[in-house]
Design a protein that fits this description.
Elements lengths: L7 H39 L6 E8 L10 E4 L2 E11 L8 E8 L11 E6 L6 E5 L9 E4 L2 E7 L2 E4 L7 E2 L1 E4 L3 H59 L5 H5 L2 H41 L3 H21 L9 H5 L23
């Protein structure tokens, strides 16, 4: 519908709506620009675009595994990035030129004795640059007003504007992964004939050993058969080891000896029983006649006194020797203590 066909009220409302849409588009564009500016600032700040840098360069034999924008490491920190990778002129000692930048304050650690170590970074063939910290040389960058103004080249301070490539650092390059793999393959190919010869020798020795084992097994079969037969005899009661060691005559003799020994043991037991009975009877008699020894002792003393009296009698002195007549009569003690008053006294003869 043409605009002129609208009523004045509708045209007024349409113009207001157009203004609101225009304001919304402008606000959206402004917010987009603000977001982009914030993202750019944050990215630049995180990557150190606003931080002063100092250029450096080194050389490599090959650019394999290196790429522009790859980080530069110093003491394990990411301190910069690679800015240039170019081939050198034909016939040059080094084949590849590698330029890089180092952010503040890390270029203060790079001195004239620092080195750039180009080493393998991953298993896919990537390589990385790692700068070593200087300790015995001189600083390579000199600041003024917070930015690098002079650099040290060949022992002289030169304005940075006159040395756009920066300061050169000697490389310490490790062979690339492909080169090392190729070298390893070459070594393997060189050593492969010797390895195959050794394998062939080992297989030959194994075959000879298997033949010797087979021969030994064939010789051991009769021995094993004999061992099997012996074990069968050992397990058989009629052919056990006891049957082999003890002959029938020896077993009969042992049986007879054991029978005699049993009879002797029975006789000995009977004798011991009789001896026990006798000793028991004697013990009973002694316990029943506990005064017999006392009476015998008293009888011996009285008999001795009678003999001594006869020796002193005038009528019988001539019957005894002179020595015995003159010796005093000994005093005999009773063999046992005299019986107590309570005990019955023995009869005097």
């Amino acid at each position: 519908m043409p605009l002129r066909d609208l009523t004045p009220q509708l045209r007024t409302r349409l113009r207001r709506m157009e203004r609101l849409v225009g304001l919304f588009v402008v606000a959206a564009a402004g917010m987009t620009l603000i977001g982009f500016a914030y993202y750019f600032y944050h990215t630049a700040e995180s990557r150190g675009w606003f931080v002063p840098t100092c250029p450096y360069y080194t050389f490599a034999e090959s650019a394999e595994g290196l790429q522009v924008g790859a980080p530069i490491l110093l003491m394990g920190f990411s301190v910069g990035e690679i800015t240039r990778i170019e081939a050198q002129a034909p016939g040059s000692y080094y084949k590849v030129f590698v330029g890089f930048e180092v952010r503040r304050p890390y270029y203060g650690y790079i001195w004239t004795d620092s080195k750039v170590r180009i080493s393998s970074g991953d298993l896919l063939g990537g390589r990385r640059l790692q700068v070593t910290v200087g300790s015995a040389g001189q600083p390579t960058a000199y600041e003024e007003d917070g930015r690098v103004r002079e650099v040290l080249i060949d022992g002289k301070k030169v304005p940075l504007a006159e040395a756009p490539q920066g300061v050169g650092v000697d490389p310490l390059e490790e062979p690339a992964l492909a080169d090392r793999a190729q070298k390893l393959v070459a070594q393997v190919e060189e050593a492969l004939p010797g390895i195959l010869a050794q394998v062939e020798t080992v297989l030959g020795n194994a075959a000879q050993l298997s033949e010797e084992l087979a021969h030994l097994a064939s010789e051991a079969r009769p021995v094993l058969a004999n061992v099997d037969e012996i074990t069968g005899h050992l397990s058989d009661p009629q052919g056990s080891l006891g049957e082999w060691l003890l002959t029938p005559e020896l077993r009969e003799g042992l049986d007879e000896a054991l029978s005699n020994l049993n009879a002797d043991l029975a006789t000995l037991n009977e004798t011991l029983a009789n001896v026990g009975a006798i000793t028991g009877s004697l013990k009973t008699q002694v316990e029943a006649n506990d005064q017999i020894l006392a009476e015998i002792s008293s009888l011996v003393v009285e008999a001795d006194e009678l003999v001594q009296g006869l020796k002193r009698h005038w009528l019988l002195q001539s019957a005894f020797p002179v020595g015995e007549r003159m010796s005093p009569a000994p005093i005999l003690e009773p063999l046992l203590a005299p019986p107590s008053d309570d005990a019955p006294s023995a009869a005097t003869p």
